[in-house]
Amino acid sequence: MSVHTLRIDGRDLAVPEGTTLLQAAREAGIAIPTLCHLEGLSPVAACRLCLVEVEGAGKLLPACITPASEGMVVHTATPRLQDIRRTVVELLFTEGNHVCAICVANGHCELQDLAVSTGMDHSRLPYRFPDRHVDLSHPFFGLDHNRCVLCTRCVRVCDEVEGAHVWDVGWRGEHCRIIAGLEEPWGAVDACTDCGKCVEVCPTGALFHKGDTTAEKQGEPARLQALVHARRHQQWDP
Amino acid sequence: MTSSPPARDSRARVRLATVWLAGCSGCHMSFLDLDEWLIELAERAEIVYSPVGSDRKTYPDNVDVCLVEGGVANTDNLELLRQVRARTRVLISFGDCAITANIPGMRNMLQGTDPVLRKAYLELADGSGQLPHAPGIVPELLERVLPVHELVPVELYLPGCPPSATRIRAALEPLLQGGWPELSGADLIRFG
Amino acid sequence: MSATLRVCTAAGCAGCGGSALRERLAAVLAAAGPGAPASGLALKGVGCLGPCSEGGLLELESSAGRRLFGGLTPEGVEAVAASLANLGPDADLASWAPPGTRPIDLEQPFFRLQRRLVLEHCGRIDPESIAEALAAGTYGQLRRVLQKDTPEAVIEQVRRSGLRGRGGGGYPTGLKWATVARMPGREKVVVCNADEGDPGAFMDRSLLEGDPHRLLEGMAIAAWAVGASRGFIYVRAEYPLAIAHLRTAIAQAEDQSLLSAAIAGSAFSLQLELRVGAGAFVCGEETALIHSIEGRRGVPRPRPPYPAEVGVFGLPTLINNVETFANIPPLLALGAEAYAAIGTANSGGTKVFSLTGDVRLAGVLEVPMGTPIATIVNTMGGGAPGGHAIKAVQTGGPSGGCVPADRLATPVDYESLQELGSIMGSGGMVVMDDTTSMVDVACFFMAFCREESCGKCIPCRAGTVQLHALLQKHLAGEASAADLAQLESLCHMVKDTSLCGLGQSAPKPVLSTLRHFRGDYLALLRPEPGGREVAP
Q1: DSSP state of B2
Q2: C-alpha–C-alpha distance, residues C500 and C489, integer Å
Q3: Nearest chain B residue to C535, by CA
Q4: Lowest mean pLDDT: which of C86-100, C234-248, C277-291?
Q5: Domains annotated on chain C, with CATH
Q6: C141, C122, C158: which is closest to C8 by C-alpha?
């Protein structure tokens, strides 16, 4: 295996070939915000929060899928990138109905965390207040589309890890929404194993346990990561 | 965007106001949670208008700092907000309702005032429901509840539902000293 | 005496009575007795004859030369048929004028200044007859290269010709072919992007409807050159006539061993399939198109890997647009140097445009690369009608921009248009006169992108919504200077951060009109109130 040396935010790093810029930065303790990315699931590079500047690249590159290469000079937190990230967070807040005060994920929400880390203390863009719905047809879980950021973690975990592919994305553009089965009520989809992995990886309060009330939901991505690690390495004892 | 406040004489007592628009008054309760620091505040600032600190019925001129709680939901809110803006140097959007429309803003999901009134006063009413209409007495609802900064310029944002007393103090204290608060991090700017 | 009557039955003219006329005239001809003038008439339904705005069009070719007639209407079909049926035995077809139509001068610049390579046979042959295509020389280059050439030599010809992707990107075609050819692996795929979706673009449709065998020949040569044995034509469902003609053409070519196995007696085989899109503009983006062909949701993915490495079903894939493939046979017939000499130094060959909007003669035309825009819209198109002046010419659809009137001397080539903040695009050219609000134009295109965003990445999904709302606010006269600043900065954000070309270019119509027509935006701003207050 070969090793690449590169420079991220002025720090010289050496990483094995195949390491992404995101992995390289995180190992060096450099924080790059992410939302759609989740270790253990395939990357989709959709949220654009992890875009970084690579000298000579000519365009911004998503750190989650860009492999580190020899001699790369990377900047992860320029004023331009910071403004872009804040705008991304503003776009997310304004396109949905994110009412933190009454949300199951209040206090443990990755979208809230992103607002803090990007300094988004208000949105410069107007709120859209879309008309969205809540699916409470499943016996144990609920899906509140108002809080969905369309990161597709649920789609990927159900397809790639649970193998059930209950979830997918329906419609397009601003009308996109997560759909169960063939656009059926979640509770009516036989393929669902009730495993709850989608709830555990959901970054917001969109997917939740029905018993949870305000501020009671905490995501459990670590459980997914443990499972993926165990399968990959055939090591079942933590 | 945070704009720098117009300069003021730092020796004089700060003329401070608080305003309650469409919100639950929880932000004001949190303001009262400042407890003994309120005494210090009362020495350093003159409370010129506030539902919890003054009996004054009209918003005065020449206010240095105003905490505005709540979204803008009706014509009274809008009129008061305009007065506040015209007569205040530093307008602070105080709490999630002022910044995002938050809970009052949930009626916007019904896409307009008419469906909201019908839902509340007719569909969910027993037998005798009727739409409220009393011009001059009951203020008319705006078509949408809006955050303060979508209507007037705002100098500072204090998120939270409610913002904690610590957070309020972190915003006010530098202002009392003629400085400017730098709010960042989960303790000071988290929604919810 | 013999004559040929060509009735345009392409989508535009079909609606003006073209298809009905062909059917009606076929009946007249069948009933004509020997000796009647009509009995000497060969009748053909053909593809686009050019000036669509003058449709329905029909062309009469006789010993006296070619005469073009326009203005056919569905109501006028019967009179034309009756006139032909009632021609006296001594009447001369060469001087017959279909009643209710008007003659169109074939010597005018619209026709004279064209250089038709791609559209060589379009409007000449019956697109549903492979015999006519073969008689016109189609598949000749395929046979020739299979017998006498090597793939490397053909790719070298394409490279030297200077041909660049006609879908809008302008990527050197020869380089793309060489890349796919060099990819390891025995299985490769060739794909034709016929998902023409820009508002105001109908060049590819005209070619697909009018000469589908030309495309098949170009694709077969490309497949052979890069080593592909499977091919897909991805065509949008909104083009039913093109789809029908393609289906017919593929079946005919397979029957004649010009597709499928042992093509033209060689060892080369190509299985060509037609895939019909379901109405998503984003599927013109190559990675979304690949997903759609595979039967998955048509959303783009980040590149790299490029389709040349990982394409349809994970195989190395060559994707070219309709017009690019259709350029291959004439390019090989002319030779690389002669082809390159037609265009400019950096853009070889010709370009097909669909000219539309506020222009006297609208339609499909083909000109050498480097022709000034003014030549196309003024000289050939006749300028804006109704005594109006041209304000701008939009190229490249929702991914492009507007060229202002004072820059119409700009030659059409990839670099010149890019310098002006527009793009060559696939060939849509929309003329706008001086009554046009450029903010309105920008708002129209943003509404289009908002509707067509696939929703995968946030800047495009939510950014186009916010941009559209900001543009509407301007049009309503409610925008402030701060709104204009926000519009501009959000445009840059969406352009710089979107995942695929749709989002990256969605702000271009706004940025281009802001650059050349900022006054249109400023004129819409509401007066700033005296105080700090902002009206609701």
Answers
A1: P
A2: 19
A3: B151
A4: C86-100
A5: 3-106 (3.40.30.10), 130-340 (3.40.50.11540), 349-433 (3.10.20.600), 438-522 (1.20.1440.230)
A6: C122
CB-neighbour burial class of residue B71 (10 A; exposed 0-12, middle 13-18, buried 19+):
buried
* C-alpha–C-alpha distance, residues C318 and C321, integer Å: 10
Among candidates A101, A124, A215 on the partner chain, residue whose Cβ is nearest the Cβ of B1:
A124
Sheet holding A207-209, edge to edge: A134-135, A141-144, A207-209
| Residues in C touching A65 (Cβ below 8 Å) | 302
Q: 3.40.50.10860, 3.40.50.700, 3.30.1330.30, 1.20.1250.20: which CATH number matches B14-105+142-179?
A: 3.40.50.700
Cβ–Cβ < 8 Å for A132, A97: yes
For A176-221, the pLDDT digits (tens) are: 999 999 999 999 999 999 999 999 999 999 999 999 999 999 988 8
ipTM for the predicted complex comes to: 0.97
Out of A97, A103, A116, the one facing B189 most closely (by C-beta) is A116
Q: A19: phi > 0 → left, psi -120 to 50 → alpha, else beta; which? A: beta
Report the C-alpha gap between C521 and C494 in whole angstroms.
20
List chain B domain ranges: 14-105+142-179
C396 Ramachandran zone, left/alpha/beta (phi>0; psi -120 to 50): left
* Domain final position from A51, A77, A103: A77
CB < 8 Å from C in window 80-109 of A: 83-84, 87-88, 91-92, 94-95
CB count in 10 Å sphere of residue C532: 12
DSSP A168-193: EEES-GGG-EEEETTTB-GGG-TT--
d(CA C395, CA C509): 10
DSSP string, C303-342: SSSPTTTS-GGGS-EEEEEHHHHHHHHHHHHH-HHHHHHH
Single-letter code of the amino acid located at C471: L
Query: Residue A63 is part of a domain; what is its CATH number?
Result: 3.10.20.740
Q: Is A227 on the interface with C (CB under 8 A)?
A: no
Q: Is some CB atom of chain C closer than 8 A to the CB atom of B3?
A: no
Sheet holding C3-8, edge to edge: C41-46, C3-8, C58-62, C65-70, C102-104
Give the separation between CA B118 and CA A136, rounded to whole angstroms.
25
Question: C265: burial class by Cβ within 10 Å (0-12, 13-18, 19+)?
Answer: exposed
CA distance B108 to C462: 18
The encoded tokens of residue A189 equal 């989809």
Chain A: residue whose CA lies nearest to C279: A172
Q: Could you tell me if B48 lies within 8 Å of chain C, comparing CB atoms?
A: no
Phi, psi of C9 (to 5 degrees): -115, 20
Indicate whether C200 pLDDT > 80: yes
CB contact under 8 Å between C532 and B146, yes or no, is: no
The residue of chain C nearest to residue A50, with distances taken between CA atoms, is C497
> Domain range spanning residue A113?
83-233
**A31 burial via Cβ count (<10 Å: 0-12, 13-18, 19+):** exposed
Q: Does the global pTM surpass 0.90?
A: yes
Q: What is the rounded distance in angstroms from the CA atom of residue C525 to the CA atom of residue B82?
A: 22
The pair of three-digit structure tokens given for residue C27, joined into one six-digit string? 């009946």
Which pLDDT tens digit goes with each residue over A21-72?
999 999 999 999 999 999 999 999 999 999 999 999 999 999 999 999 999 9
According to DSSP, the residues that pair with C45 across neighbouring strands are C7
Measure CA C487 to chain center.
31
Chain C residue closest to B152 (CA)? C534
Residues of A in contact with B161 (CB under 8 A): 100-101
Residue C109 identity (one-letter amino acid) = P
